[in-house]
Write the structure tokens for this entry.
Amino acid sequence: MSTNTTQDSATTHAAPKASVLKDLDAVRAMIKRHKLNDYIFSLIGLLALMLALLTLLTLFTDLVMDGHERFNLEFFTDFPSRRAAHAGLLSAWVGSALVMLVTFIVAVPMGIGAGLYLEEYAPKNWFSDIIEINVANLAGVPSIIYGLLALGLFVYILDLGQSILTAGLTLGLLILPIVIVSTRESIRAIPIAIREAAYAVGATKWQVVYDHVLKYSYGGILTGVIIGMARALGETAPIITIGALTFIAFLPPSPITEVAPFINFEWLSSGFTVLPIQMFNWLSRPDHAFHINAAATGALIIIVTLLMNGTAIYLRYKIRKNIKW
Amino acid sequence: MNTATMVQNQSLELTVSPRLAKNVRRNIKERIIEFILMLAALSAVATTLSIVAILLYESLSFFKTVSVVDFFTDTQWTPLFEDAHYGILPLVSGTLTTSAIALAVAIPIGTIAAIYLSEFASHKTREIVKPILELLVGVPTIVFGYFALLFLTPLLQKIFPELPGFNMLSAGIVMGIMIVPYIASVAEDAMRAVPMSMREGSYAMGATRFQTAIRVVTPAAVSGIVAAYILGISRAVGETMVVAVAAGQQPIVSFNPIESAATITAYIVQVAMGDLPHGSIGYQSIFAAGLVLMVMTLCFNILGHMVRKKYREHY
């Protein structure tokens, strides 16, 4: 179209013909150049993206390649040892599981409670603002600072020692902001009409919150909890800071006993090690044989955290897709 | 008549009707629940206060022995030696150097990836890539430490044979790669928030995708993008395991990336791994170092939120 009109004007006014065509060529060249720019940038962009994604793949392949020879049952049932080939993860994965249990018990009720309070109860005043700013800032505090808090407060002032309880409390506080933020986000998505309907039939505030708000935001909260737990599983720095031992060749006392009352709490005050610490320990040895163990442990940690995060992301995707208020 | 007096007597005994009595109980229960939930919310405030209190308390004991001037001007950090020096500068220089390398890697790659994802990629690509970026953010840092020490360092040593086994370059690069998904994800969110009409206006003027992305969308989203950078810096400064594993433990004032150096976080790990008695000057020194780290990251976090708030465009 545009070329036609240009040609028309070119035939009626013979004089400017050459310059118009020249301009046209220049414009065409410009368009070509810009299209090329577009193309080049999209290639660079794809490359940048691939670089980020391929790193994960390289990282994982590297760990599996280095550590695959240790993938066997003994690796999970042996205690750490001075001989790399006989060293296993038993105390580490049991320690991780127990620490995660404490973390869950600490972070989930507190995080959901805080999220509920901030969304449903908190009056709009300076006090609520302070809590809100505070939660946002806590999420940005480096994890090692939580370790220092734990070292000063839990280990020495409260005298809990370098125990599973201390580690669980520390990681619980660390993931608290994650649980709070995800709770608030999923509560905010519930339309006000749901609450009003419940109030209209005479429900109290807590009945509204417990029977409706909490139940409908369940999936979103679960997503946050899983992401938080995955983060806690991989955290190393705060647990090193509280002085967790790296060579643990025993298991904490069993939480479940054969005689009444069937539950004991001795394990809470037991010494422990966790997967990332065991990996760090093996990694910091000069002997290459231990690096193989570290690689195998790393692959295990990646698999577990990716599975947890993957579940959470899938869950969120499902919820977003299914719920239409 | 008779029943009426009975009712009157009853209500006098109860002082309130059963229905109202139930309401009082209900109200008390509601109040208790609200109080418990408020305590949960306050636990977040309590955590912050305890962090500040512990850091200040132990640091104050530290500064009774070490003068503040020495702490900020001495260029040696040897708290565990006979001839003890307490100058935070070597640790700060190590922290800043590794962070700078990380950002030199993360900012270009992260920004380009964000622009591509937001402006060039198809809907389907974005739906697949965004969750993967989130997965990458969740990979534990110790694993990246392994990557830096046993994959990247040997690789770099093939190019620079004089590179030591522990160096800031490798740790910084890996840290940068680690931050890329974070920056890309946050920056992409900021760019997606730019309204479609602005892009359409640009396309209507004959601009290409690239021109629209660079001259319209990026400037419109600049507050969010800069906030992503600043939060990225904050993460790099506070990152512990990668530098503890791969950057070494020598506290020297050096901005040379191919040297080995200690960061604030690596020092804390190093001391915590040893068995320092509670209350010793070495024990207190990690809290002083932690305080410096906390102040640094807090400044970056506040700056990031301020940038986002102040320069946010309202559409």
